[in-house]
């Protein structure tokens, strides 16, 4: 059944990279999500949901973005009237709702008001402290020595130091305890029969507290795990008396939903057994060891970390051009030596504001905090080095946090998993027909012809097949914002007069409120970042009525732009929506310089790095990065046969978009080739005129990061002030064997003297990278 779960219900978890951790009202939150399943990239989900939740649990903003290359990017604009407070970002897929929602990605985001001031602490908040105890393996058992771990926290879930004594029912001190790392520690305890135990400790306020330890079991097992070079050693000890079915046990070890170890042990004649699990060749991650009875009843369980250091790949961040002067130009170069496809995101911020405090990064999230319940303080610490002390402190985390991805009782009964939330497709259009009756049915072969007109002027002609008595469905459509859908019945024209249609998408509605019990409690604030944010805000306020909380004051700008190249002019004339912009290769054929070529494909051969084209005409075969590029004629998806039949002399413009191209059905893993035929007199047509129409909501509209180009401005006087705190953000950087180095330019603001550069990402085999640098000019 474990294999059934692995194959039919693969887990999925997300990590989200932000441009920074602290925001001012009026700024934009930029983010990039990465999706994993086990130790690989996830291909399960197609849509990523992002929410901003306020301190009352209300969802104030909600976005839906398509997933491509196991990632998705987006943004939230914070109103400049937003008061200071603490927001929670939630990121998830529909598939994640099949699991415990405690594993959904959540992150606290501190927002200041536009003056840079944080929320005032409420006087009624009372500091409280608590401590919890966790026997190794799950239970305290009579006469068996156990390791008991503990963690102490305040009311926000932040760690506090703790020390005290363990006393029995007579008040006799049995042992003492003291926290070793971030409020956590451990001690040994051998319970006596018919005894109870309590912990007596003084919390940080000096108040004496008493708490009972977990109940002691009369019979059972104690499980202990220790680590050695390349192996994990387990020791299992039982009491003299146990149920008959407990004398023979099954030992199962799981890693990333895969069973990596299975053994049986007969303890009928002995009370102790041990074993070794070789782990040196395994992926890094949390391993779960569970002891079952002969009838597969779980008896004891423990999680432990395998850290073989085999989860990263190398990337270099260089600065060929570094200048922290007023609005100076900078160049950053990303270099990845691997030949496999890498998918990266890059943030450049003011060094003080971009600093992350005790938070997650892509490595700690995927290896640790994304797999256990409860808040982990400063998870990045546990992967910062390979010291034994760090490994021992990490073991305390695993001893004091829950891990329950399986319901063993359900598995033991052989029940297959129930999928309440099937894996979704990209945006699916559904048309519900009103007015269908037995006396006036729709034809069984009826189809809808629809024309989708988006706000950005892009358009699509599509056919919707009938999928029910009164329903038409079209999966895997990509459009953004609210679109107008013009429609007509293709078979029964009179149906348009007798019936009406409503169009819907397949996005889940989601909750309106989030239970505070499921939100992270840590609200620790970086005081240095707050001070720097206040400094930037004060600078902006000096501008009086010209104040712009985004960091740019552009009311007085007269921008002098460069003359657009012929190719840029063609792009504006022919391309729209996802097809527009500098996202690949562009070819201008308006001057008929390509008329000597047999067809479009022969023209493209050898002109695009990595694009392989063999054969000619309708027999042409195309591959890019192992996948077939999507083909478009005037932005309508088509095939090789139609493209090859077009005379080269009729073509004005060709665009080749690098993979992935999410405007293509299925995500465009092989990129896309868009061919535009000459428009002649460019006679404007009005598609859809005279047809019935309806509105439908698509994906959240993407927003492009604004990065000023001061080279195109004749003087600094054209921009009154520039106090941006995020200087550069790029959520989609792709490298492979043909593109190992990528360069980007950005311009400094008016006052930053040190940059914080954070690069995160994954490659196609599931390895991760994180590079963080503070860069400044030498004095």
Query: Can you count the beta strands?
Result: 48
Low-confidence stretches: 518-522, 553-561, 681-685
What class would the helix/strand composition place it in? mainly beta
- Give the percentage of residues in beta strands: 35-45%
Q: What percentage of residues falls in helices of 4 or more residues?
A: under 10%
Which architecture of the domain at 129-308 and 406-412 does the CATH hierarchy give at level 2?
A: Sandwich
Strand order of the largest sheet: 34-29-32-31-30-33-43
The end-to-end distance, rounded to whole angstroms, is 64 Å
What is the top-level CATH class of the domain at 129-308 and 406-412? Mainly Beta
Mean model confidence by pLDDT: 86
CATH fold descriptor of the domain at 129-308 and 406-412: Immunoglobulin-like
Organism: Segetibacter aerophilus
Protein name: TonB-dependent receptor plug domain-containing protein
Describe this structure in words.
- It is built from nine helices and 48 strands.
- A seven-stranded antiparallel sheet has the order 34-29-32-31-30-33-43. Strands 2-9-8-5-6 form a five-stranded mixed sheet.
- The radius of gyration is 30 Å and the shape is globular.
- Among the domains are: 129-308 and 406-412, Immunoglobulins (Immunoglobulin-like, Sandwich); 429-504, no CATH class; 566-677, TonB-dependent receptor, plug domain (Ferric Hydroxamate Uptake Protein, Chain A, domain 1, Beta Complex), CATH 2.170.130.10.
- A hairpin with a 2-residue loop joins β21 (248-255) and β22.
- It has 779 residues and is mainly beta.
- Residues 518-522, 553-561 and 681-685 have low confidence and may be disordered.
- This is TonB-dependent receptor plug domain-containing protein.
